[in-house]
């Protein structure tokens, strides 16, 4: 049976995977709450997705702040009342490319606040009512980088390892609750990620996929009755992610350093 969210919250919805996920959810009849910093892009997307009988709400805000989850829930409540947000996609995040010691300390803390702290706060806040209702879907966007360290993206992939491990544990904790939880782990994808990360090399390492391939794989998985703890959308990156967990760590570090042009 096709997955049909009733009310979906998507962070990082102004571009890339978040925007495409919002579009696909809208095509399936979902009401939406779109969250990102760029209000102009969110409103343009909301205007495009608006249709009779469909509500598309915009929350333009920086969620890389303390108490992101409760603050976001309060703002959503002002828009939709006591409706259950039955689908949450934690997509907001960014990376920093280059040696850790070359990263600006403030920018590094901002990345970790968004990728780790805000995601955890939002997950905790919105997962609780889903479990109480006995239904819902949580998708945390991680990365194939979360399966192994990557010199040149050290803090970023560490943050995605956190997201992956958190989500896998939540999958187990909630598996009898009626709520479905999964970590979406795309490899290098044709988005603006590497421009934002500051890499002049473009997508580094792994099989490069399109947003359409990633979101298509996610929706096919969500169409099933059960979801796995994590999803790597394409076969080549799936093989690489398994190998990263099985091969000796020193070997994978050496390979990663060469791929990331840190040797």
From TrEMBL:
Residue ranges constituting the Ketoreductase domain according to the UniProt record: 6-191
Entry keyword set: Oxidoreductase
Keyword rRNA-binding part of the UniProt annotation: no
Cited SMART domains: PKS_KR
One matching Pfam family: adh_short
Designated name of the protein: SDR family NAD(P)-dependent oxidoreductase
Assigned protein family: Belongs to the short-chain dehydrogenases/reductases (SDR) family.
InterPro entries: KR_dom, NAD(P)-bd_dom_sf, SDR_fam
PANTHER family (alphabetical): DEHYDROGENASE/REDUCTASE SDR FAMILY MEMBER 7B, SHORT-CHAIN DEHYDROGENASE-RELATED
SUPFAM superfamilies given in the database record: NAD(P)-binding Rossmann-fold domains
Superkingdom of this protein's organism: Bacteria
GO molecular function: oxidoreductase activity
Recorded GO CC terms: membrane
């Amino acid at each position: 049976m096709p997955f049909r969210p009733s009310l979906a919250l998507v962070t990082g919805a102004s571009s890339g995977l978040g925007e495409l996920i919002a579009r696909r959810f809208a095509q399936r009849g979902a009401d939406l709450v779109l969250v990102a910093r760029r209000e102009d892009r969110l409103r343009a997307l909301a205007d495009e997705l608006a249709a009779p009988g469909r509500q598309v709400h915009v929350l333009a805000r920086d969620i890389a702040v303390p108490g992101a989850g409760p603050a976001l829930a309060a703002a959503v409540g002002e828009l939709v009342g006591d409706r259950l947000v039955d689908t949450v996609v934690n997509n907001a995040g960014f990376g920093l490319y280059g040696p850790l010691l070359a990263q600006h300390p403030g920018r590094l803390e901002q990345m970790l606040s968004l990728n780790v702290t805000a995601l955890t706060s939002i997950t905790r806040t919105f997962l609780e009512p889903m479990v109480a209702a006995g239904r819902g879907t949580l998708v945390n966007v991680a990365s194939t980088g979360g399966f192994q360290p990557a010199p040149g993206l050290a803090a970023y992939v560490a943050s995605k390892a956190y997201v992956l491990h958190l989500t896998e544990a939540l999958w187990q904790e909630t598996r009898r609750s009626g709520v479905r939880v999964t970590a979406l782990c795309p490899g290098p994808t044709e988005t603006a990620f590497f421009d934002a990360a500051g890499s002049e090399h473009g997508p580094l390492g792994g099989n490069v996929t399109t947003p359409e391939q990633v979101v298509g794989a996610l929706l096919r998985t969500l169409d099933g009755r059960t979801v796995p703890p994590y999803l790597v959308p394409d076969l080549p990156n799936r093989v690489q992610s398994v190998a990263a967990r099985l091969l000796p760590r020193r070997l994978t570090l050496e390979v990663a350093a060469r791929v990331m042009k840190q040797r």
